[in-house]
Specification:
This protein has nine helices and 13 strands. The protein is of the alpha+beta class and about 260 residues long. The chain has two domains: about 65-170, 3-Layer(aba) Sandwich (Alpha-D-Glucose-1,6-Bisphosphate, Chain A, domain 3), CATH 3.40.120; about 175-260, TATA-Binding Protein (2-Layer Sandwich), CATH 3.30.310.50. Strand 6 (about 135-140) and strand 7 form a beta hairpin.
Length: about 260
Amino acid sequence: MNAEVFPLYFELDGSFPNHEANPIAPENLVDLQKLVKKKKADIGLAFDGDADRCFLVDETGALVSPSALTALIADRELRKRPGSTIIYNLISSQIVREVVESAGGTAVRSRVGHSYIKKLMEETGAIFGGEHSGHFYFKEFWRADSGMLAALHAIAALMESTDSLSSLLAPYNRYFQSGEINTEVPSPKDSVHAIEEHYSQQAQQRSLEFDRLDGLTVTAPEWWFNVRPSNTEPLLRLNAEAKTVKEMVAIRDEVLKFIKSR
């Protein structure tokens, strides 16, 4: 490729002296963001400890949404194999479904978690799957997740284009997401039930739709949110997305206020 590569923290050290190997936490990507800007790099890549997850930093030092990368890879894969099936989890941005369908593919929504994604890929014959957590699954990689293959897709897309990474991904960043917000509650399941009852009373007025694929998802014309209990802790996980920042903040804060009021 004739690329110039700047390794960051490549020395193996199980005590993790710089930061933990968890790229989903923004504080663990600060050093990479600084290095990208300092070196005027075209792309920054951050992997977790076993490299099954990959997060990107664009040339401006901004973090790239895993949903945008899912949409980019789905678009590329569907050009090679038109009409194929793509899996995405229900926390991913709705841009993923829109991109897949506009490219002539079939978008299948999944629960959060690698076991559900892999099972659905097998059942549907899907060629690719992506999660909001930076896991990317490939049919030709035994339906397993590989951050390295995802990174190579991003690099290949850059090499095939004269655009910067931020420009390349701009069409996949139409919506605004809250990120996952965890709140400790006495009973996560009771909280989900209370939220469903609360918003059911507003369903007709606000044109709301509900589904229970994983926790509870409430969808309105301009936004959606999902609440789901943690499997291991007394936590309720909230994710929200909207067409504008103002709408996302409004629904995020509205739901959080209701959760904390109980």
